[in-house]
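Section 4.2 – Deliverable D4.2 (structural model, holo form)

The reporting period included a commitment to supply a predicted holo structure for the target in complex with zinc ion. Inputs used:
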Amino acid sequence: MSTQERRAAAAERILSAGPTEVPDVDGRIAELNEVRGDGRNMDAPAPSPPVDWLQRLWTPYRMAYIKGEPGSGRDQGEGCPLCRIPTLDDVAGLIVARGEHAYAVLNLHPYNPGHLMIVTYRHVPDLEDLTGAELTELSAMTRDAVQALKSASQPHGFNVGINLGGVAGGSLSDHLHQHVVPRWNGDANFMMVLSQTKVMPQLLADTRELLASTWPSRD
Ligand SMILES: [Zn+2]
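Output (structure tokens):
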């Protein structure tokens, strides 16, 4: 069987697995290494740490971000992306809702479809920097984000939180933002990771439109 045929067969096996199936981790890693398609000798021992294949799987999608290329959100020459986004229109900025002190925007590098961030307009890093009005609206928009996501896609749960400081995982830690990540049973398996990688760029615009339509009105 040629390398290309082996890749196709491995991809077929992975993609035909059910989304709620408990993953066979070692088997899946071996299969993913087979389909990684980076020109390596496919007969060589496959690298085993899951981190390795995740990086390769995401490379085409994330490389501009990692390298800090213009427009990638990490180009310091363009200033802070979370300050720049509200200057764009909603569609271009992937903005779902705007408040008086904060806005809700889709994460460009989502952990799940519908991964939102609630961001203050002011460029401040810490919770203690927020005024009472900003803190109140950050919480209110977090509530609205959860409600909009429930209406749009019936998640089974959510992760909600703020990474304070780079050491805590905050890649834009100079500008406070709260993550709202919808979760579904079985969403962390390999089927979901592969599906996201294939369809995410198109989904972002559709997801923004859907969540803007389900965002609660509180007039
Ligand atoms: Zn900023």
